[in-house]
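step 4 of 6: structure.
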Amino acid sequence: MGRMNLVVNGKSHEIDVAPETPLLWVLRDTLGLTGTKFGCGMGLCGACTVHLESDAVRACQTPVGSAGSKKITTIEGLSPDRSHPVQKAWIAEQVPQCGYCQSGQIMQAAAFLAKHPRPTREEIDQVMSGNICRCGTYHRIRRAIQRAAGEAA
Amino acid sequence: MPVQVEVNRREFLKAGASSGAAFVLGFYLPVRGKTEESLYDSQPQIFKPNAWVRITPDNQITLLVEQPEMGQGPRTVVPMMLAEELEADWATIRVEQAPTIPEIYKNLITGGSGCVRSAWGSVRKVGAQAREMLITAGAKQWGVDKSLCRAENGNVIYLPAGRRLSYGELVETASQIPPIAADDLPLKAPKNFRYIGKPILRTDIPSKVDGSAVFGIDIRVPGMLYAVIARCPHFGGVLKTCDDSAAKAIPGVRAVFRVAPLPGPDGKGGGTAGGVAVVGESTWAALQGRKALKLTWDKGPTGDESTDSLRKRLQEQAIATPSFVAVNQGDALKQLAEAAKKIEAVYETPFQAHATMEPMNTTVDVRDDGVEVWSPTQGATLTQEDIVRISGLPASKVTVHMTLSGGSFGRRGQWDYQAETWQVAKEMKKPVQLLWTRDDDLQHDFYRQYAYQRLSAALDENGGILAWSQRIASTSVHAYYAIPDKIKDPRYIAALELGGADVLPYSVPNFRLDYLSAESPVPRAWWRSVTNFTAFAMESFVDELAHAAGKDPCQFRLSLLPENQKVTSVMWPDGKPLDTRKFRTVLQLAADKAGWGKPLPAGWGRGIACHFSFGSYIAHIAEVSVEKDGAVRVHRVVSAVDCGTAVNPDGVKAMTEGSINFALTEVLTGEITIKNSAVEQSNFHDYQVLRMNQSPEIEVHIVPSTANPEGMGEPGVPPLAPAVTNAVFAATGVRIRRLPMDTRLLRKP
C-alpha cells in the first residue's frame, strides 16, 4: 500500500492504495465516484474513460500511481450543471438508451473536441470507435458531436 | 404477452408524503379469483397492482412504474400515457420505480417487447379515473354542477365563471369523495392527444450525461464488501482442486470459499455454475485474489462438446425423422419431389452472447431481519421469488430494489447472478456486491440458440411459390430448461424456436414446417427477438427465390402478398395475426424512401427484408459496399415501421436504430464458439461487437396509425441480417447463408 495524493475534479484526496491499482477502482470503490464505469477491464470498450490533464485515458488501464499530480477529471467533474457543450448536445440529440457507456462516450468526445474543434465524420468515427455502445446509439453520438462542434465554435 | 388489465378497484389513501395529504390512486390486476376487499388487510396476492398515481398539494404527480429501465424508455413512455388521460401538465409528472411489495405490486418485470402494450390499457384508465375524480372534487368544492367543469393541463375549470383550481389544491377534497368506476369512462380520441404521438424528451437522460444515474454496479452500502467468483469454464463440469493460499495472501482479500452450484428452478432458467468466491475490501482486491487461485476442473460428462460436434448433430437433425410437424398445408413434400424447379438452401445462426455493457452484478445484505437486494434485474418480482425460494424466507422479508440496468436484451431475466450474490452475502454476514467481469459475462451467459434451417421450395411456371418446406433444427431454449413434465412435449420444446416461420405472409399453397431439437450442454435463453432468428432464413430464401424466378426481390414479395389477409400463428394462435396489408405497406414505404431500384455505384448493393414480430411490422433496406478483400461496409439502413400508435415516436426511432446496430454484430462479427464444452471467447477482442466506424446511417419512417401500440424493443432485429446479406448478394452475387459473414467468400481474385 502507499499513501498518495490524487487530484480529482479539482479536489485533492489523500488515499492509501497500492500504486498499481487501476485508477478505475480507486475512483469507484475508494472515492465513490461511480459515474466512471467498468466494462471490460482491458481497455477495449471505453466505458471507463476519464481525462488525465487534457487526455482521454482508460481508467481500467491506468495505474493510480502513474497519475502522480496530474489533474483527473471524471464525468462528475466535466461541468457542475450538465452545461458542457457535449452534455448539452447529448441531451438535445437524446443519445442515451441504457446510458451505461455514455459517461465514457462523453468524456472521449469532450477530450477529442477540445483538441479537434472541427472534426470530419471520419475523424469522429475513428476516435469514437474505441467506445462500445451495445444499445447502438452510434449515429446519435455522431450527430451530437457534430452539434457540439458547431455550438462550441 | 400483453397483460389484460381490468380496473375494478380504486383506493384513496392519505399517504404520508412529506408534503402532507396525498391523493393516491392505485390500480390492480385481479388474480387467483380472490376478492378485492383483502387488498390492504395483509392477505397477500389478492390483486396485482401494476402502478400507482400520487398527487400531492405541491402539484406533483408521481407515477410508480413497474417496468425496469434498461434503456427502452419506460420512465418516459409510461407516464406519457398517464399524463394524456389525466390532462396533466407534463412538467409536474415524476416517476418512481415501484417497490417489491408483493401484496400490492406483482409485475415488476418486462419482456417480450411488452412495456408499452401492457401499460396502454391500464395506465390510461388510471389517468382517466383520476381526472374524473378531480373534476368531481372541483365541482364539490365550488358547489356547482360537475357537467360544467372540465380538466385542463393540471387544473379543474368551472367554465361559466372561469374559475380554476389546480390538482394540488384539490387533493384534500378528492381524497374524501367516493371512487368513480373506471370502466365506463371514455378514453380520449387520438385526434385530441396532447402527449401521445408527440416527441417527448426522455426523463432519464439528464442523469445519464452527468454520471448521477445509479446502475446496479453503482450501489454503495455502508460496510459492503466486493466479490467475484471463479466458475468452472466447462458447462456441466465441476471443481476438482483448489489451492487458495496465494489468494488469501493478497492484501485486502477477506475470504475465499467454495460456492455450491444451484440447480435451475423449473421454468426459470438453468442452474448456476458454482465455483470459488473471493471476497475483498475492494473490487480490485477480489479480482487480484481470484487471479491468484490455483484451480483444476473436471470437464464433466459433456467435456468433449465443441461447435463442430454440435454442428454435426444439427446437420443430422435437420434431415432426421420423425420431426415435430408444426404446419402441414397441402402436400409440400409431394410437390417438392415432383417439382420441375426446386431450390434448396441451408441457413445457420450460431450462439450469441448478450454482452450488456454493464456486466451482471448484484448487491445483497443478509441480515437477521431479512434480505435486502439491489439488482439491475429485468424483473424484481422474479428476483424476489427466487431469493424467497432459495432462502426459505417469506416474501415480506425479502426486499428487492430494481436499479437501472446497463442493457439487458433478455439476459437480466435470469436469476443466476442474484442467487450467487445471496450465497456469498449469507456466508459473509455483511453486504456484498458480486461483480461479473467481461470474461464471466461472455463465458457464462445464457446464449441465443444455435439454429440450422433447411429450406426447400418449388416454383410454378409463373414464378410463384408452389411449395415451401422449412426444417428447423436448434438447441431449443425450452429443452434447456427441461421442465420435467413438459420435456417430452414436442410442441413445448418447439415453442420458442419457430417464431415467424409459422406465420408465413407469402401465398404458398403447399407449406410444411418441421422442427427438431438438438441436445447441447450450452445454456441458452431469450436473446433480443428470441425465436425470430427464423427471419434470416425466411427472408434470405425469399430473396433467393426472387432471383431464381428472375424477378425484383421487392416486387416478388409484393406479388406474393395478398392485399388484405390475416395469417394466424400456429404456435401462438392467441397472438395478434399477421396482416398482409400492413406487411405490404412497410415494404412499399421502405422501398419508396430508400429509392429502391435507383442505380448504385459499382461494388454496392441494396437488400430488402421484412418481418412481423411482437405485433409490429418492420422492413429494412440496407445499402452495402463490398471491397476487393471481401470487407463489407453497411452504409445506410432505411426502415419502415408499423407499430400501431407510436406513443413516443422518438422512442420508436431509438429502438429501431438500436435494433439495427445490435443485429449488425450478429451479421458482421459476433459468434460464440465452443471447445471442450467451454466458450472460447473472453472479451471484446474476440467477441467483437459493433463499433461506431461500422455503424450505418439510419432513417426510420413510421406508418401513421391509431391502432393499439405494439412492441418495439425487439422487432427491428430479425429483418436486419437478411436485409444486409441480400444486399451483399446484390453487390457480389455471393449468397451468405451462415452468420457472421465469412468475408473470405466475398474476396475477388
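step 5 of 6: annotate
 - The mean pLDDT of chain A is 96.
 - The radius of gyration of chain A is 15 Å.
step 6 of 6: archive
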